[in-house]
Amino acid sequence: MAPTEAVAAQIEMPTKSRVTVVGSGNWGSVAAKLIASNTLKLESFHDEVRMWVFEEVLPCGQKLSQVINQTNENVKYLPGVKLGQNVLAVPDLENAVRDANMLVFVTPHQFMEGICRRLVGKISQNAQAISLIKGMEVKKEGPCMISTLIQEQLGINCCVLMGANIANEIAVEKFSEATVGYRDNKEMAEKWVQLFNTNYFMVSAVQDVEGVELCGTLKNVVAIAAGFVDGLEMGNNTKAAIMRIGLREMKAFSKLLFSSVKDSTFFESCGVADLITTCLGGRNRKCADAFARNGGKRSFDELEAEMLQGQKLQGVSTAKEVYEVLNHRGWLELFPLFTTVHEICSGRLPPSAIVEYSEHAPKLSLLGGSAQIY
Questions:
Q1: Catalytic: 219?
Q2: Which residue in the list 33, 219, 239, 286 is annotated as catalytic?
């Protein structure tokens, strides 16, 4: 071997990143499509994008993962949209994450603790994660954000991506934005931006994981309230008021839980933009509208099963989790909108109570001098 060849052989080639999407619902499939279009273009990524599929048998008798791989389409959760030939559906979770060093989590938040338990000791030591999941776990010691759950259970860094992202619109390449939230590693945040950003999906990064994640989580509660307003045909003025009050409570709740949350985050795509689009469209608003039109006589479980074709509502469960935090900390009176949404969802109040609550002004003095966060 010539000297120059020997030197060249000793130079370590940069390792290409392998990406796995953990989740294959509506938003998970769109995320896989976005990512797959970029891994083909970017030299720093392996072309193949694995997507973990919770296996289901379709009415035709075939397994969902097989149909996705045969047709390059998630016929159940994103019909009519090609994901990219480099997307591989994998029904076994361990096989899906094997050798992957970039893990994209996008499942209903209530399943994440179990998924993390299954992945302990099964992922690459140098793995990085990003959560696209809206929701949080509530434990006796307090609320736990999904990014924190991933970090603590798997021992890996976790960023978040949230924004005004109705999945079906992004799937057909209508322009949209999103926000990556990161803690300390700006270089890794920029790599996630590079992986997701396209000419129709504009992504930016901010150093505020909790703020970005809580925006994505709490807006679903406000969208439930907006759906009640629509179902009761209260009009756009009322809906605008609900959205404004909801944003105020989102900001107050976030800053009470995490003092590091930045005011500016609420003006990013993950904040006011996501709130607007979720209150105008989206599954939470849609099901809450139907709930109100039926006078609360049909349960959200029933409406979810009928209207969402296997997708999961997040707003109702998040409203319950938020209520548990508020009740435990004695904050119920500070957050009348959040409190009332849960009480309507649980059947304690009629849907019309969504505007009646405003007669009871929150007692800001209970914040102990922190009322300016409103």
A1: yes
A2: 219
